[in-house]
Design goal:
This is Regulator of nucleoside diphosphate kinase. This protein is of the alpha+beta class. The protein contains 3 helices and 5 strands, in the order H-H-E-E-E-H-E-E. It has one domain: Transcription elongation factor, GreA/GreB, C-terminal domain (Chitinase A, domain 3, Roll), CATH 3.10.50.30. It has a 5-stranded mixed β-sheet with strand order 3-2-1-5-4. The longest helix is centred in the N-terminal third of the chain and has 21 residues. The N terminus is likely disordered.
């Protein structure tokens, strides 16, 4: 019985972490966060090395540093976001942290007292 509860709790925590890390609903109540993301998008549009940096529309090959899991995400606008399909908004905590990163760089996000680190392996297209 305890295994069933632990498994159910684990699934719940996984879904919650996915929502808070990839969802962008919290950014709507944080105007400074929205402004900083818009500024970064504008800076990337003018940057000479923009093709080597994570930006809107890119596929990103990432590694979760703590677990060594590797996966691909696409940075998209909020209306195109679908975390279950690996498309995350640039306004989500993870999306905004990845925006402008180069291959080899790492970002960390806090969730429920724990940090998760993500390493950008490669910017694809």
């Amino acid at each position: 019985m305890n295994n069933l509860i632990a498994s159910s709790l684990r699934r719940f925590l996984d879904r919650m972490s996915q929502f808070f890390i990839t969802g962008d609903s919290l950014s709507l109540c944080r105007p400074l966060h929205l402004l900083s993301v818009y500024c970064r998008i504008e800076q990337l549009n003018k940057a000479t090395d923009a093709k080597s940096r994570a930006r809107l529309g890119n596929l990103l090959l990432l590694e979760v540093v703590e677990t060594h899991e590797i996966f691909i995400l696409e940075l998209v606008t909020p209306s195109a976001a679908a975390p279950d399909e690996q498309r995350i908004s640039v306004f989500s905590p993870l999306g905004s942290a990845l925006l402008g990163m180069k291959s080899g760089e790492t970002c960390s996000l806090g969730f429920m007292g724990h940090n998760l680190s993500f390493r950008l392996i490669k910017v694809i297209g």
